[in-house]
Amino acid sequence: MIEVVPAILEKSINEIKRKIDLVKPYVQHVHLDIMDNEFVKNITFNDPDKLKDIKFGVKINPHLMIKKPEFFVKKWAWEEVETIFVHKEAVTNMAEMIKLIKSLGKRVGIAINPRTASYDIKDYLNDIDQVLVMGVEPGLAGQAFNEDVLAKIKQLRAWQPNLDIEVDGGVSDKNCRMIIQAGANILAVNSYLFQHENIKEAIDSLKN
Predict the structure, then answer these.
(1) Any catalytic annotation for residue 168?
(2) Closest CA to 8 of 58, 49, 68
(3) Which residues, including other chains, have CB under 8 Å from residue 170's CB and lie 6 or more apart?
(4) Which end of the chain is more exposed for a tag (fewer CB within 10 A), N or C?
């Protein structure tokens, strides 16, 4: 079954809340992009202390596009958070990071940029819950999907038939079929979803 997860990339709490309110009647999870203007050249709202007490009414999956995530993971492990994504490129000791996230009672996700090989995370696949394959260079919404990552998705699926594989970046109704056929079962979607005049129709078009 294909799941569509709205990806939210915003600089204010009000915009985060507004977009979650738009999508929560139709989804189970929201993908929350967190950027610090160091790991990627963009910044979003990134203060978990101001988010943790808000009842969003949907599960939140923070995607930590930040430098030294090991110093911040604990703050992102609040009640409504289900899966925490950290980047292979930002973590110096992935085995310890996996243990830390699990100790917080959260699902573990590893994100990889388009230029990072699937082999770079092969040794961790048995210990994590999800892989997030970036279809664009992280940092900005609205980029075109990089079809070169399809081979990476196929390889990950061949290694782990039951692993959750999510794709984030440039996903739309024009390319979702080939992304799913490559092996992804979760689609993180920003521009296509929020620029569509009917969000439910947009979600259905991706699922179907």
Answers:
(1) yes
(2) 58
(3) 135, 136, 143, 144, 145, 146
(4) N
Q: Which of the residues in the chain have pLDDT under 50?
A: none
String of DSSP letters for 46-67: --GGGTTT---SSEEEEEEE-S
* pLDDT value of residue 75: 97
SS3 sequence of 121-160:
HHHHHHHCCEEEEECCCCCCCCCCCCCCHHHHHHHHHHHC
The per-residue pLDDT for 140 is 75
**Segments making up each domain of the chain, as ranges:** 3-207
pTM of the predicted structure, to 2 decimals: 0.96
Nearest one of 185, 90, 70, 82 to 133, comparing CA atoms: 185
Question: Among the options 47, 120, 148, 168, which is catalytic?
Answer: 168
Q: Nearest CA to 86 among 134, 47, 52?
A: 134
Catalytic, 33? Answer yes
Residue with tokens 């917080």: 104
Place of tokens 């939140």: 60
pLDDT tens digits, residue range 57-105? Answer: 999 999 999 999 999 999 999 999 999 999 999 999 999 999 999 999 9
Half-sphere exposure of 103 (CA within 13 A, CB side): 9
Q: Which two tokens stand for residue 37?
A: 């203007």
The topology under which CATH files domain 3-207 is TIM Barrel (3.20.20)
pLDDT at res. 26: 97
